[in-house]
Amino acid sequence: MREEASPDALRDRRVLISGASVAGPALAHWLAAHGCAVTIVEKAPALRQGGFAVDFRGAAHREVLRRMGLWDAVRERQTHMGTQHFIGPDGREQASLPPEFMSGDVEIFRGDLSEIFHEHTKDRVEYVFGDSLATLEQTPDEVHVTFERGAPRTFDLVVGADGLHSTVRRLVFGDEARHLRFLNHYVAVYDAPNHLGLDRTARWFNAPGRAVGLAHYGGDPAKALVTMVFAEQDPGYARLGPERQREILRERYAGLGWEVPRALKALEETEDLYFDAMAQVRLDRFSEGRVVLLGDAGYGATMGGLGTGLALVCAYVLAGELATRPGHRAAFAAYEEQIRAYALGCQKNADSAGPMLAPATDRRIRLRNLTYRVLQLGPLSALFSRLSVRAAEAIELKDYPLPVSGARSSGVRD
């Protein structure tokens, strides 16, 4: 059933979106096309390059990209990642995972995806880089916002699309410690020399409670990406400084074989270390007054939670509900009704990411490897493929009205 647009529901609405990675620009695409005056504020000084490889999988992800007109652009810049292999202490392969399980239908670097979305929206959306929200005050009719650098401004709606450690969520819903569910694992990612000569493939090595992955996703053949995942009960490591975090990694991985010594040497030389807790955002509601959360800010799940595709789908739903409801309260309620179960299903998909990547004991490592081998045998391989997309496809997309033409244009300021 096709939804009918609510007359002038979004025309000339002033909407502030915090976050210029994926969720924010995806929402901005739809809102600007419906006639909104959209501003995106991003604390980074420019678009972030590189980063994780993220994937889209299943019919819902593909369909939203197609409706945005970006499916072909994403496919053109995909990683074409191949099989990923799990290596034993003797250096021999113990198990492997096919590309579709780890990389979905299409995989792309987050930085490349952000660039595509930015190019697609920059002439219709105002981008403000190098700034962040400082305070936020709601009235019955609007939202007054002050910024760390820029002058105060007023908006009709504010959207927090600013990630797991969302500033908007903190300002409206309180300290993040109340909303983050720690999953007892940490992840660290950084660049290293490609000593193994990997070509669009990955090697994973395990010791109890620890994993090290070396991967090459394309691009510079001399560079590889190191991913470290380790189990830990203390939830406070993410708040430590980078030098202490490097020290923790050295301590955890000291004495391990395979390529781990080289990976630790590269850790000392890298200038771009990503280190964070594996955690999930849990909230009783996704909106408060004229403020609403989108993507990781509202229901993030770190690794394994299909977060990029989830954000894309939920941006489509949020914009569609705003376009078809008589006001933001009804739209936010309908948005939450549409996506809550979907988001929780994707989060549940992430519950096992840490234990599967870094099993706690030698026995569990062997059982994990055996499971991967068995699931790729004969008729079970089809089940394996279905499992990889089940959570991503657990939503029925409404047929929202097509956006109007002649979307407003705005410049970019720093």
TrEMBL record:
<feature type="domain" description="FAD-binding">
    <location>
        <begin position="14"/>
        <end position="324"/>
    </location>
</feature>
<keyword id="KW-0503">Monooxygenase</keyword>
<keyword id="KW-0560">Oxidoreductase</keyword>
<dbReference type="InterPro" id="IPR051704">
    <property type="entry name" value="FAD_aromatic-hydroxylase"/>
</dbReference>
<protein>
    <submittedName>
        <fullName>FAD-dependent monooxygenase</fullName>
    </submittedName>
</protein>
<dbReference type="InterPro" id="IPR036188">
    <property type="entry name" value="FAD/NAD-bd_sf"/>
</dbReference>
<dbReference type="GO" id="GO:0004497">
    <property type="term" value="F:monooxygenase activity"/>
</dbReference>
<dbReference type="Pfam" id="PF01494">
    <property type="entry name" value="FAD_binding_3"/>
</dbReference>
<dbReference type="InterPro" id="IPR002938">
    <property type="entry name" value="FAD-bd"/>
</dbReference>
